[in-house]
Amino acid sequence: MNTSFLEATGFDVEEVLGKNLGDTIRRDEKRDKIENIYESLETQGLGIQEELVTTRKNGSQFISEVSFTPIFNSQNIIVFFLVIERDITKEKEVDAMKDEFLSIASHELRTPMTIINGYNELLLSGSFGEITEQQKKYLLRIESNINNLINIVNDMLDIGKLESGKITFEYESFSLHDLIDEVYSFFRRMCESKGLSISYSSQELEVYLDRQKIKQVLNNLVGNACKFTEQGSIMISTEILEGDTILRVSVTDTGLGIAEENKNKLFKKFSQVDNYLQKTQKGTGLGLSICKTIIEGMNGKIDMKPCLDHPGSIFYFDIPFKK
Ligand SMILES: Nc1ncnc2c1ncn2[C@@H]1O[C@H](COP(=O)(O)OP(=O)(O)O)[C@@H](O)[C@H]1O
Ligand SMILES: [Mg+2]
User: Fold this and answer.
1) Angle between helices 211-227 and 176-194 (to 10 degrees)
2) Which residues pair with 82 in a beta bridge?
3) How far is the C-alpha of 103 from the C-alpha of 157, rounded, in Å?
4) Residue with the nearest Cα to atom 13 of ligand 1?
């Protein structure tokens, strides 16, 4: 340990030297958690990063980001662990404030936008008098831009809810095929107008999941595929893995693809990959991070891989689908 450790925790050298960290700074952390960390360090031999609660000498606590790295001897046996801690309490607070701000701002924005949309719809429907073709064209433009804004605000609200843990999953049994057909029908017109073909192959399968949230994930994956594909096709497919318990849904496109070095950015908040279509496409860079939180919330995982035989990407998620 170094002086920073002593300063951060308030202990003197004699009080911690040779002692188990579990008895000093980590005394409130659940034993199992620590044991699990050490166990996976020993079995996998790889470094691990975790958020843990650190207790100071005076009993007060802070949140630290702790990285554990095993150090091996020449016989490849772990001789000790290098542990580096970073106090991230402030970052956590700022994050929470940012989320709260996002949530308030989004609520305040959504109400007026819904009202504008309502009046616009009334005008479009001719309830206040007949409208000319040109007026209709402009009202439709207002509608499409307001819808973009509403989508962005909804993403921001979702990320706020998801991150504050206020999200609940409503599981139900439903037909996977019907759901995929709905998503397909929604995007067909958009794809056709861009000259893309879209298709799906899905087995008749009854799944037990949160239907609305799975639909939200698929909408974003297929929406992204449409945005970042200029020619070719988009394909939604399903597969059952691992002895009948895991469902894989994949969205394959023939679009720009994603460079390997950008892959790890994708599922982070507000992150967009630099590509030449980005400037003309609307979006917040929140979609995939929402998808990740939703899929992981239902014990699944989401990832992407490049297509092997053509340019483009495959975004897929694996999820346990049985009751
Ligand atoms: N199918 C895809 N092909 C190429 N790039 C993609 C694809 N899907 C996502 N991306 C990249 O990942 C970024 C993040 O996607 P997302 O989180 O859904 O945000 P948004 O759609 O709001 O930009 C996109 O901006 C894009 O750069
Ligand atoms: Mg998106």
Assistant:
1) 20
2) 69
3) 5
4) 272
Quote the CA–CA distance of 269 and 30 in Å, as a whole number.
29
Q: Which domains does the chain have, with CATH numbers?
A: 3-87 (3.30.450.20), 91-163 (1.10.287), 172-320 (3.30.565.10)
* One-character DSSP codes across 215-263: HHHHHHHHHHHHHT-SSSEEEEEEEEETTTTEEEEEEEE-S----GGGG
What would the two tokens of residue 82 be? 């290098």
Cα 88 to Cα 28, 96, 166, 297, distances in angstroms = 18, 12, 23, 24
* Nearest-CA residue for atom 9 of ligand 1: 224
Which of 159, 224, 258 for mutating ligand 1's site (highest number of atoms within 8 Å of CB)?
Answer: 224
Residue at 79: amino acid letter:
V
For the chain (length 323 residues), average pLDDT per consecutive 10?
86 84 71 76 79 87 87 85 87 81 80 91 93 93 84 79 78 96 89 92 92 93 94 96 91 92 83 70 81 94 92 96 92
